[in-house]
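Notebook entry, structure prediction.
Reason for the run: the old model in the group folder had no record of what sequence produced it. Starting over properly, with the input documented here first.
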Amino acid sequence: MREGYEGTGPGAITPDGCAVELYSRLPVGNEPDIITAAVPAGARILELGSGVGRTTHPLVERGFTVTAVDESPDMLERVQGARTICGPIESLALDETFDAVLLASFLVHTGDPEVRRGMLRTCLRHLAPGGSVLIQREGENYHTEVPRERVDPHGFTIRIAASEPLGDGTNSVRAEYEFPDAAWTHTFVVRPMTREEFEETLVESGLRVAEYLTEDRIWVRAVPVEG
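New structure, fully documented this time:
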């Protein structure tokens, strides 16, 4: 397990503390709708950090060609209908480009700045001319309105139990998931960024914000600085 990361609960746990069985249970959110509205029909999509394919599968069903990348073979075993590649995002180097690159799941907030830069370089390196990078960033109050919880209509509870500063610009976050028959926890390290810091981070990596796709500015469409 990586330092600062921990996961508990039934089933396989990945090195960053994610529970495979948990993510197989979580329902699909509005991500497929946001992505579909932001990229051309039938686009070739590189999905970085696909997990078990919660977003992958709806995109495939909508006619997109998806290449799903994740460092966990246990996660990728659950992905269907897409090409899968197992390995770290930050070192990915495919000899091809894509109409759209996805960096969701708040991965841009990874605690290690070098890993974050590597991820964004991967996005830029695999982007076809005229393409877009779609990034999911944290909400404005993600680390201040804690603890908080939400009861999902599907019958489980998601709780952000703590977000504690570690003293180096990162926070240790503990999330809890309670189902009627099982429970999981996930502790992980993230680097909070204001909107200005996020935009500066993109520019440093050769990208810029083209538009915010949602009113809460959580979903972003980015393009190359020179584009």
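Summary: The chain is about 20% helix and 35% strand.
The old model has been moved to the deprecated folder.
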